[in-house]
Amino acid sequence: MSSLQEKINAAKKEIEKAIIGKELAVELLFIAILAEGHILLESVPGSGKTKLAKSFATIISGDFQRIQFTPDVLPSDVTGIQFYNPKTQEFELRTGPVYANILLADEINRATPKTQSSLLEAMEEKQVTVDGETVTLPVPFLVIATQNPVESNHGTFQLPEAQLDRFLFKIDMGYPSLEEEQTILDTYKEAEPFAELQKVIGIEELTAWRNQVKQVTVSQPVRDYLLKLVRGTREHHEIELGISTRGALALMKAGQAYALIKGKAYVSPADIKLLTPYLFEHRLILNMEGSIRKTPAQVLEEIISQIDVPVETGEPVS
After folding, report:
1. Alpha-carbon distances, residue 287 vs 211, 236, 237 (angstroms)
2. How far apart are CA 134 and CA 115, in angstroms?
Protein backbone atom coordinates (compact mmCIF):
# COMPACT_ATOMS: atom_id res chain seq x y z
CA MET A 1 0.00 0.00 0.00
CA SER A 2 1.36 3.42 -1.01
CA SER A 3 1.80 6.29 1.42
CA LEU A 4 -1.04 8.10 -0.38
CA GLN A 5 -3.44 5.22 0.27
CA GLU A 6 -2.29 4.95 3.88
CA LYS A 7 -2.85 8.66 4.46
CA ILE A 8 -6.29 8.68 2.83
CA ASN A 9 -7.36 5.57 4.77
CA ALA A 10 -6.18 7.22 7.97
CA ALA A 11 -8.11 10.38 7.05
CA LYS A 12 -11.26 8.35 6.39
CA LYS A 13 -10.99 6.68 9.79
CA GLU A 14 -10.50 10.04 11.46
CA ILE A 15 -13.51 11.60 9.78
CA GLU A 16 -15.64 8.58 10.68
CA LYS A 17 -15.29 9.62 14.31
CA ALA A 18 -17.63 12.53 13.60
CA ILE A 19 -19.46 11.47 10.42
CA ILE A 20 -21.22 8.11 10.63
CA GLY A 21 -22.23 6.10 7.57
CA LYS A 22 -21.11 8.49 4.83
CA GLU A 23 -18.13 6.56 3.48
CA LEU A 24 -19.14 7.07 -0.16
CA ALA A 25 -19.57 10.82 0.27
CA VAL A 26 -16.15 11.08 1.93
CA GLU A 27 -14.49 9.14 -0.90
CA LEU A 28 -16.16 11.36 -3.51
CA LEU A 29 -14.89 14.42 -1.63
CA PHE A 30 -11.33 13.11 -1.92
CA ILE A 31 -11.82 12.39 -5.62
CA ALA A 32 -13.22 15.90 -6.16
CA ILE A 33 -10.37 17.72 -4.45
CA LEU A 34 -7.75 15.64 -6.30
CA ALA A 35 -9.55 16.15 -9.63
CA GLU A 36 -9.91 19.89 -8.97
CA GLY A 37 -13.71 19.67 -8.98
CA HIS A 38 -16.57 20.78 -6.74
CA ILE A 39 -19.40 19.05 -4.90
CA LEU A 40 -23.16 19.63 -4.67
CA LEU A 41 -24.65 17.99 -1.56
CA GLU A 42 -28.39 17.51 -1.61
CA SER A 43 -30.43 16.25 1.31
CA VAL A 44 -33.02 17.25 3.87
CA PRO A 45 -31.99 19.57 6.72
CA GLY A 46 -30.15 17.97 9.62
CA SER A 47 -28.48 15.19 7.64
CA GLY A 48 -24.90 16.28 8.39
CA LYS A 49 -23.97 18.26 5.27
CA THR A 50 -22.35 21.15 7.13
CA LYS A 51 -20.57 18.91 9.63
CA LEU A 52 -19.21 16.78 6.78
CA ALA A 53 -17.72 19.85 5.06
CA LYS A 54 -16.16 21.17 8.28
CA SER A 55 -14.77 17.74 9.20
CA PHE A 56 -13.23 17.32 5.76
CA ALA A 57 -11.56 20.73 5.98
CA THR A 58 -10.14 19.83 9.41
CA ILE A 59 -8.53 16.55 8.41
CA ILE A 60 -6.85 18.06 5.32
CA SER A 61 -5.49 21.04 7.33
CA GLY A 62 -7.41 23.45 5.12
CA ASP A 63 -8.84 26.91 5.71
CA PHE A 64 -12.62 26.67 6.01
CA GLN A 65 -15.21 29.35 5.27
CA ARG A 66 -19.00 29.17 5.24
CA ILE A 67 -21.57 31.33 3.47
CA GLN A 68 -25.18 31.04 4.57
CA PHE A 69 -26.99 32.04 1.41
CA THR A 70 -30.19 34.07 1.59
CA PRO A 71 -31.86 36.24 -1.09
CA ASP A 72 -30.21 39.39 0.31
CA VAL A 73 -26.61 38.09 0.04
CA LEU A 74 -24.73 40.16 -2.55
CA PRO A 75 -21.91 39.05 -4.89
CA SER A 76 -19.51 41.27 -2.93
CA ASP A 77 -20.43 39.29 0.21
CA VAL A 78 -18.91 36.28 -1.56
CA THR A 79 -15.90 37.72 -3.40
CA GLY A 80 -14.92 40.71 -1.24
CA ILE A 81 -14.71 44.49 -1.54
CA GLN A 82 -12.31 47.40 -1.92
CA PHE A 83 -12.65 49.65 1.12
CA TYR A 84 -11.13 53.02 1.92
CA ASN A 85 -8.72 53.02 4.86
CA PRO A 86 -8.70 56.55 6.36
CA LYS A 87 -5.40 55.85 8.14
CA THR A 88 -3.47 55.09 4.98
CA GLN A 89 -5.81 57.14 2.77
CA GLU A 90 -5.78 54.30 0.27
CA PHE A 91 -8.22 51.67 -0.93
CA GLU A 92 -7.47 48.18 0.37
CA LEU A 93 -8.74 44.79 -0.68
CA ARG A 94 -10.78 42.84 1.83
CA THR A 95 -11.27 39.34 0.45
CA GLY A 96 -14.57 37.57 0.99
CA PRO A 97 -15.19 34.08 2.36
CA VAL A 98 -14.45 32.63 -1.08
CA TYR A 99 -10.77 32.96 -0.18
CA ALA A 100 -10.41 29.54 1.49
CA ASN A 101 -9.41 25.96 0.76
CA ILE A 102 -12.89 24.64 1.55
CA LEU A 103 -15.87 26.91 0.91
CA LEU A 104 -19.24 25.72 2.18
CA ALA A 105 -21.96 27.42 0.12
CA ASP A 106 -24.88 26.58 2.38
CA GLU A 107 -28.34 26.52 0.77
CA ILE A 108 -27.03 27.85 -2.51
CA ASN A 109 -30.51 27.71 -4.04
CA ARG A 110 -31.58 30.52 -1.70
CA ALA A 111 -29.15 32.94 -3.36
CA THR A 112 -30.27 35.12 -6.25
CA PRO A 113 -29.00 34.23 -9.75
CA LYS A 114 -26.62 37.21 -9.68
CA THR A 115 -25.02 36.00 -6.45
CA GLN A 116 -24.94 32.40 -7.66
CA SER A 117 -23.09 33.54 -10.78
CA SER A 118 -20.45 35.23 -8.63
CA LEU A 119 -19.25 31.72 -7.80
CA LEU A 120 -18.80 30.79 -11.47
CA GLU A 121 -15.46 32.51 -11.97
CA ALA A 122 -14.18 31.18 -8.65
CA MET A 123 -15.21 27.60 -9.40
CA GLU A 124 -13.98 27.54 -12.99
CA GLU A 125 -11.00 29.90 -13.01
CA LYS A 126 -9.86 29.55 -9.37
CA GLN A 127 -9.81 33.32 -9.12
CA VAL A 128 -12.13 36.26 -8.46
CA THR A 129 -12.16 39.86 -9.65
CA VAL A 130 -12.91 42.57 -7.09
CA ASP A 131 -13.31 46.06 -8.54
CA GLY A 132 -10.93 45.25 -11.37
CA GLU A 133 -8.32 43.53 -9.20
CA THR A 134 -7.83 39.80 -9.82
CA VAL A 135 -7.25 37.64 -6.77
CA THR A 136 -5.95 34.08 -7.14
CA LEU A 137 -7.63 31.67 -4.77
CA PRO A 138 -5.72 29.24 -2.51
CA VAL A 139 -4.68 25.80 -3.73
CA PRO A 140 -6.52 23.52 -3.32
CA PHE A 141 -9.91 25.22 -3.63
CA LEU A 142 -13.09 23.17 -3.20
CA VAL A 143 -16.66 24.45 -3.16
CA ILE A 144 -19.12 22.25 -1.28
CA ALA A 145 -22.58 23.61 -2.01
CA THR A 146 -25.71 22.35 -0.28
CA GLN A 147 -29.36 22.54 -1.18
CA ASN A 148 -32.59 21.17 0.22
CA PRO A 149 -34.52 19.18 -2.43
CA VAL A 150 -37.87 19.61 -0.63
CA GLU A 151 -37.53 23.36 -0.18
CA SER A 152 -40.52 25.49 -1.11
CA ASN A 153 -40.18 27.46 -4.32
CA HIS A 154 -40.81 30.64 -2.35
CA GLY A 155 -37.49 32.36 -1.76
CA THR A 156 -35.42 29.85 -3.72
CA PHE A 157 -33.76 30.04 -7.15
CA GLN A 158 -33.06 26.86 -9.08
CA LEU A 159 -29.44 26.52 -10.17
CA PRO A 160 -29.08 27.08 -13.94
CA GLU A 161 -27.56 24.41 -16.16
CA ALA A 162 -24.31 26.39 -16.54
CA GLN A 163 -23.85 26.37 -12.77
CA LEU A 164 -24.76 22.70 -12.34
CA ASP A 165 -22.25 21.73 -15.03
CA ARG A 166 -19.47 23.16 -12.88
CA PHE A 167 -20.08 20.69 -10.08
CA LEU A 168 -18.09 17.50 -10.53
CA PHE A 169 -20.43 15.40 -8.38
CA LYS A 170 -23.91 15.67 -7.00
CA ILE A 171 -24.31 13.58 -3.84
CA ASP A 172 -27.58 12.72 -2.16
CA MET A 173 -26.71 12.37 1.53
CA GLY A 174 -29.98 10.62 2.37
CA TYR A 175 -31.15 9.40 5.74
CA PRO A 176 -28.88 7.10 7.77
CA SER A 177 -29.84 3.48 8.33
CA LEU A 178 -31.31 2.42 11.67
CA GLU A 179 -27.95 1.01 12.79
CA GLU A 180 -26.09 4.15 11.69
CA GLU A 181 -28.55 6.41 13.47
CA GLN A 182 -28.20 4.35 16.64
CA THR A 183 -24.42 4.74 16.40
CA ILE A 184 -24.85 8.51 15.95
CA LEU A 185 -26.95 8.71 19.12
CA ASP A 186 -24.42 6.64 21.06
CA THR A 187 -21.46 8.67 19.72
CA TYR A 188 -22.92 12.11 20.44
CA LYS A 189 -24.65 11.25 23.70
CA GLU A 190 -21.85 12.50 25.93
CA ALA A 191 -19.27 14.04 23.60
CA GLU A 192 -18.71 16.17 20.49
CA PRO A 193 -16.38 14.08 18.30
CA PHE A 194 -15.88 16.92 15.81
CA ALA A 195 -13.94 18.93 18.38
CA GLU A 196 -11.43 16.07 18.70
CA LEU A 197 -10.69 15.56 14.99
CA GLN A 198 -6.98 15.65 14.12
CA LYS A 199 -5.23 16.91 10.99
CA VAL A 200 -4.08 13.95 8.92
CA ILE A 201 -3.13 15.32 5.49
CA GLY A 202 -1.19 18.48 4.72
CA ILE A 203 -1.96 20.96 1.96
CA GLU A 204 1.46 20.30 0.41
CA GLU A 205 0.68 16.58 0.18
CA LEU A 206 -2.66 17.26 -1.50
CA THR A 207 -0.97 19.54 -4.02
CA ALA A 208 1.60 16.86 -4.85
CA TRP A 209 -1.11 14.23 -5.25
CA ARG A 210 -3.06 16.48 -7.60
CA ASN A 211 -0.01 16.57 -9.86
CA GLN A 212 0.22 12.77 -9.70
CA VAL A 213 -3.40 12.47 -10.84
CA LYS A 214 -2.44 13.96 -14.22
CA GLN A 215 0.09 11.14 -14.75
CA VAL A 216 -2.49 8.33 -14.39
CA THR A 217 -2.92 6.53 -17.72
CA VAL A 218 -6.23 6.67 -19.58
CA SER A 219 -5.98 4.13 -22.40
CA GLN A 220 -7.71 4.51 -25.77
CA PRO A 221 -10.31 1.77 -25.03
CA VAL A 222 -11.24 3.57 -21.78
CA ARG A 223 -11.52 6.91 -23.58
CA ASP A 224 -13.66 5.26 -26.25
CA TYR A 225 -15.96 3.79 -23.58
CA LEU A 226 -16.20 7.16 -21.84
CA LEU A 227 -17.15 8.91 -25.08
CA LYS A 228 -19.75 6.26 -25.89
CA LEU A 229 -21.42 7.06 -22.56
CA VAL A 230 -21.31 10.78 -23.37
CA ARG A 231 -22.70 10.23 -26.88
CA GLY A 232 -25.38 7.99 -25.46
CA THR A 233 -26.76 10.88 -23.44
CA ARG A 234 -26.78 13.17 -26.48
CA GLU A 235 -28.55 10.67 -28.74
CA HIS A 236 -31.16 9.32 -26.29
CA HIS A 237 -34.69 10.14 -27.42
CA GLU A 238 -35.80 11.16 -23.91
CA ILE A 239 -32.92 13.58 -23.23
CA GLU A 240 -33.10 17.20 -24.35
CA LEU A 241 -29.63 18.23 -23.14
CA GLY A 242 -26.89 15.63 -22.83
CA ILE A 243 -23.39 15.72 -21.37
CA SER A 244 -21.09 18.55 -22.47
CA THR A 245 -17.42 18.29 -23.33
CA ARG A 246 -16.73 19.75 -19.88
CA GLY A 247 -18.62 16.80 -18.42
CA ALA A 248 -16.56 14.34 -20.47
CA LEU A 249 -13.32 15.91 -19.25
CA ALA A 250 -14.63 15.87 -15.68
CA LEU A 251 -15.34 12.13 -15.89
CA MET A 252 -11.84 11.42 -17.20
CA LYS A 253 -10.20 13.47 -14.43
CA ALA A 254 -12.41 11.87 -11.77
CA GLY A 255 -11.43 8.44 -13.09
CA GLN A 256 -7.75 9.37 -12.81
CA ALA A 257 -8.21 10.58 -9.24
CA TYR A 258 -10.16 7.47 -8.26
CA ALA A 259 -7.52 5.19 -9.78
CA LEU A 260 -4.76 6.99 -7.86
CA ILE A 261 -6.66 6.64 -4.59
CA LYS A 262 -7.02 2.90 -5.28
CA GLY A 263 -3.30 2.55 -5.96
CA LYS A 264 -3.49 2.07 -9.74
CA ALA A 265 -1.46 3.73 -12.46
CA TYR A 266 -4.31 3.43 -14.97
CA VAL A 267 -8.04 4.07 -15.22
CA SER A 268 -10.19 1.00 -15.83
CA PRO A 269 -13.58 0.89 -17.58
CA ALA A 270 -15.08 -0.24 -14.27
CA ASP A 271 -13.84 2.99 -12.66
CA ILE A 272 -15.63 5.04 -15.32
CA LYS A 273 -18.84 3.03 -14.98
CA LEU A 274 -18.80 3.40 -11.18
CA LEU A 275 -18.38 7.19 -11.26
CA THR A 276 -20.69 7.98 -14.17
CA PRO A 277 -23.98 8.28 -12.19
CA TYR A 278 -22.51 10.83 -9.78
CA LEU A 279 -21.16 12.96 -12.65
CA PHE A 280 -23.92 12.69 -15.23
CA GLU A 281 -27.26 12.68 -13.43
CA HIS A 282 -27.32 16.36 -12.43
CA ARG A 283 -26.13 17.40 -15.89
CA LEU A 284 -28.95 15.70 -17.80
CA ILE A 285 -32.13 17.51 -18.82
CA LEU A 286 -34.96 15.29 -19.98
CA ASN A 287 -37.45 16.38 -22.63
CA MET A 288 -41.14 16.65 -21.81
CA GLU A 289 -41.90 13.04 -22.75
CA GLY A 290 -38.96 11.70 -20.77
CA SER A 291 -39.62 13.78 -17.64
CA ILE A 292 -43.20 12.48 -17.46
CA ARG A 293 -42.18 8.85 -17.62
CA LYS A 294 -38.78 8.64 -15.94
CA THR A 295 -36.16 10.29 -13.76
CA PRO A 296 -32.69 11.24 -15.03
CA ALA A 297 -31.27 8.39 -12.94
CA GLN A 298 -33.50 5.83 -14.68
CA VAL A 299 -32.61 7.09 -18.15
CA LEU A 300 -28.92 7.11 -17.27
CA GLU A 301 -29.14 3.54 -15.99
CA GLU A 302 -30.59 2.50 -19.34
CA ILE A 303 -27.74 4.15 -21.24
CA ILE A 304 -25.05 2.57 -19.06
CA SER A 305 -26.61 -0.90 -19.37
CA GLN A 306 -26.76 -0.67 -23.18
CA ILE A 307 -23.06 0.09 -23.66
CA ASP A 308 -20.63 -2.82 -23.45
CA VAL A 309 -17.82 -2.40 -20.93
CA PRO A 310 -14.41 -3.14 -22.51
CA VAL A 311 -12.05 -5.66 -20.99
CA GLU A 312 -9.86 -4.10 -18.30
CA THR A 313 -6.17 -3.69 -19.07
CA GLY A 314 -3.26 -2.07 -17.31
CA GLU A 315 -0.81 -2.60 -14.50
CA PRO A 316 -1.28 -1.57 -10.86
CA VAL A 317 1.09 0.78 -9.06
CA SER A 318 4.02 -1.14 -7.64
Report:
1. 40, 10, 8
2. 18
